Amino acid sequence: MAALFTLVGQLRLVGLALVVMGGVHVVLPRLIDWPRDLAGTSLLTRQVSYAHLFFIGLTCVLLGLLPLALAPDLLAGTRLGSALLLGQTLFWGLRWAFQFTVFPARLWRGDRLRTAAHIGLAVLWTWVTAVFGYALAITM
Questions:
Q1: Membrane-crossing residues (predicted)?
Q2: Cα dihedral across residues 23, 25, 26, 31: positive or negative
Q3: Which domain, by its residues, includes 135?
Q4: pLDDT per residue over 74-108, tens digit each?
Q5: Total count of domains within the chain
Q6: For residue 76, how far is the Cα from the chain centroid?
Q7: Which end of the chain has the smaller Cβ count within 10 Å, N or C?
Q8: If we measure between CA atoms, which residue out of 20, 139, 136, 19 comes closest to residue 87?
Q9: pLDDT tens for residues 48-83?
Q10: CA nearest to 126, candidates 93, 84, 86
């Protein structure tokens, strides 16, 4: 249990969380009612939306597998490990910023489920970015 609180443990937990997040993309369209929302759009728009959703989910899984499987290698202080940590920190840091700039409060305020999702995702992206950022800082 104590191993979960080490940096290797935190990197692995972050990796697991990202793999799960990628898997959530399988059911996400139904959770946010995309079929109804996209029904009035062209077939091309629907297909592009679902294709992008697939690749976002796949990206989450692949970015999660890195720390899940290779946490010690990421912390070894190599140029490649540092570059991967830098990329992860920037990617998830931007996702954190989007949580507060792209999704205005009017999208979630007043709806208990969406408010909980907003808060949960804000915490998730803060934790993910902090873990990668800290790992990057100690390997440089």
A1: 12-32, 53-71, 83-103, 115-137
A2: positive
A3: 2-139
A4: 999 999 999 999 999 999 999 999 999 998 889 88
A5: 1
A6: 23
A7: N
A8: 136
A9: 999 999 999 999 999 999 999 999 999 999 999 999
A10: 93
